[in-house]
Specification:
- The chain is mostly helical.
- The radius of gyration is 16 Å and the shape is globular.
- The two termini are 31 Å apart.
- A hairpin with a 2-residue loop joins strand 1 and strand 2.
- It is built from 5 helices and 3 strands, in the order H-H-H-H-H-E-E-E.
- It has one domain.
- Strands 1-2-3 form a 3-stranded antiparallel beta sheet, covered by helices on one side.
Length: 135
């Protein structure tokens, strides 16, 4: 019986570029946010909200990865921002920017989208105590 293979994670220059993209997304969201909202209290209250998706792991790694990824992919906040611009409902744009700031900060820190193998297996490489240093 073959030993299960660790899910792949990007390394080297592509990993650094993806983390820089995260930094750029965070910076863009922080620059645009005061143009649509003056409530930094709202920002502080909502910026960690996507991390409640960790609770999906209570149902197992497959459900956990799906729920976590749904809250940490840029499609949701981009769709919310577009809806906010079209309606117009600028409050939705503010929430979308907070959400994008969270995602950008996560990527900057090396927290990527999750594989079903477990919480520590991400598209940016392994995280946690078992992670080996990436070149």
């Amino acid at each position: 019986m073959a030993e299960p293979r660790e899910p792949p994670g990007v390394a080297g220059l592509p990993r650094r570029l993806l983390r820089l993209e995260g930094a750029a997304l965070l910076a863009l969201a922080l620059v645009l946010y005061p143009r649509v909202s003056d409530s930094w209290w709202l920002f502080a209250a909502l910026v960690l909200l996507p991390d409640l998706s960790f609770l999906g792991y209570l149902a197992g790694p497959r459900v956990g990865a799906w729920v976590y990824n749904a809250a940490h992919v840029t499609l949701g906040p981009i769709a919310l921002a577009i809806a906010g611009l079209l309606l117009p409902a600028i409050q939705l744009v503010a929430v979308a920017l907070i959400w994008l700031a969270h995602i950008g900060g996560d990527r900057l820190l090396g927290y990527g989208l999750k594989y079903e193998a477990g919480f520590g297996f991400t598209h940016l490489g392994r995280i946690g105590r078992q992670a080996s240093p990436r070149p």
